[in-house]
Amino acid sequence: MFAINRRRSNPRWNITENLAGYMFMMPTILVLGTFVVLPILYAVFLSLQKVRLLGGIEYEFIGFRNFTRLAEDERVWIALRNTAQYVAIVVPTQTVLALILAVTLNSGIRGKNWWRILYFLPTVTSSAVLTLIFMWIYNTDGLLNDFLTFVGLPTYNWLGDPSVALKGIIIMNIWSTAPFFMVIYLAALQDIPKTLYEAAELDGANGWKQFIHITLPLLKPVTFFVVAVGVIGTFQLFDQSYIFSGGTGGPNNATLTVVLLIYQAVFRNLQMGYAAAIAFLLAAAIVAISLIQRRLFGGERI
Known about the structure:
Subcellular location: Cell membrane
Pfam family, one: BPD_transp_1
Protein name: Binding-protein-dependent transport systems inner membrane component
Number of domains: 2
CATH architecture of the largest domain: Orthogonal Bundle
Helix content: over 70%
Number of helices: 14
Distance between the termini: 38 Å
Strand content: under 5%
GO biological process, one term: transmembrane transport
Keywords: Cell membrane, Membrane, Transmembrane, Transmembrane helix, Transport
CATH superfamily of the largest domain: MetI-like
């Protein structure tokens, strides 16, 4: 014991020990530095530049002009409004639906393993494939309008009407993403001790009171995680909007999202600096919403 303490007090031993620790950390540091830190720093650099791509890459420092341009660009505000509407509808709905499905499967219904597989299929299916299937369903003579006609409800031009185009994407994404969060809730439900429910039942609490006073409070950290992941994912909506509109964000910018606007700025308008500024606007929105969620759900206790 005395020899070990003497070695640790030796400066050479401490240097060797620290060096060994940094060597073990080096792979992680290199990966994070290469794929996280350097891209962020380069994005900061681009956001302050006017980049010319044709005839060779040239940079011209313009300061914060790209950021001031954001406030003047009407399409930025349209994209923010569409994205905010999408997030505000999809996240609460998919969270509640996922919880309902998880509670149902956890209640001991027959064939619950088959129901799990059936519910989870949309999650493991390619997003592009799902979008193409729903485009077929949303056609004016597609399955959805046929069903609405059959039950006597009005039909819509889901792909061409600006008032309903985004709603079509919302319906598709709720259906395809809720099963993923259902699995997370289901795992959390099965981790709750059954003795708590047994004690509550002895005290005369019915199923609803047990759900309100036991299940929901114990699921609070999981709900924070589900909502946080849902918000980050929905703010990054791109592929469905791109496929639905052919990359235009139409009809009449109804499906234009922030990420799609970044894509257009880079690959159509060749405005790398402006695209980086939009990306930082998106990042700021995600961070702000995440901090609000942390405050509401007590995420600091996770």
